[in-house]
Amino acid sequence: MHTLKNCPECEVPEIFTSEHLWLDNGELVQATNERNRVAFFECENVDPLFENLSELIGMSIEPLVIEIAQRGLRAYLSSFIPDLVRQRIKSGEMDLRSFDDAFRDLARPAGYGNYQFVDMRFKQDKDDYFTVSTEEPYSLLICVASHAAAMEAILGYDHGVTYTEISQGIHNITAFPAEHPKEFRGRMRARNHKHMPGDIVLEKCETCGGPKALSNYKWYPDRGVVLNTINGRRMAILGGALLDPLFEELETELDESISRNVVEAQRRFAKTGFYSIEEVGDEGDLRTQFALRGLGNLKEIKMGRKGVHVRLDNSTLHLMVVGLVQGLFELAFDIDSDVEWEFAENGDLDLEVTPQRIMVNLY
Fold first, then answer.
1. 131 touches 120 (CB < 8 A)
2. I need a labelling partner for 249 at 20 to 30 A (CA). Which of 94, 138, 218, 285 fits?
3. What is the pLDDT of residues 332-351, one digit of tens each?
4. How far apart are CA 29 and CA 200, in angstroms?
5. Dihedral over alpha carbons 256, 53, 171, 227 (to 10 degrees)
6. Annotation: CATH topology of 268-355
7. Where are the domains of the chain?
């Protein structure tokens, strides 16, 4: 059983609120590196989304997903480790396994699932390896990448990774020294965002100072699971803006319809109950929920039976947001719809959802 020190008032793990900052422009960033943006997001659709995109393209996108996630998470995790610590691990003054244990302890409150040590060899040569098991991963592919990224962040050099299912729902993940594939070099690097001032003020817990709205979430530290107690959805921290560059690369290199298919997958997910109708109808609460997740600053939303208009500044995961809004409209009014959007380089998003026109044959 893994324990976390929780705030006595809101019951949120103190490590979760101390490691992240909620900015006034709707962004969620790493406290130790404010250039590194993250999102606290419903995650049950992540692996099904990857599977659907693979079917659409007609080829596995697994290597690309792991590579992108590994790059982004390496940047995210590296900021936790001073150079002196890396030197002491390499010199043998500090134990590699113990330090990786600490990273796994960070992964649980982030909602990544339950990691356990399995085996390792650390002689600082090409035959080294480090194996962990994972149970209830929020995304198997991203959690595979997370282990390799942790090794890279701790040791400072590239790692490859493999995984094997050893029993139902439990996988062994092995990271080992290896250069990244040449075709990925110089591409899809994690991006640092530039903070733009905003006007969002999230109500804070008087005890720990974290957003008060986090009291609607429950942490299960022994499982590495975080649940929204209102709708039962599972949550996780997506570090390093993992999904946006992945979708962009897939669209550029593989298929120009990727964006539309990401939106469609998220639309279907939203219609299963991403939010309650009551939450959708409260613009102020919806603005809070977007900011709490780090998705951006909801400046305008107009929703009625004739359609939806949304302006979201400083957005991230914008394709998933587009699909979310479209799904919410269809959920609220029980009608099929079309959606168009514009996404600016600075992250500002404008989108319009309109009811589909029904062609009637009069003859």
1. yes
2. 138
3. 888 999 999 999 988 899 99
4. 15
5. 100
6. Muramoyl-pentapeptide Carboxypeptidase; domain 2 (3.30.1380)
7. 1-256, 268-355
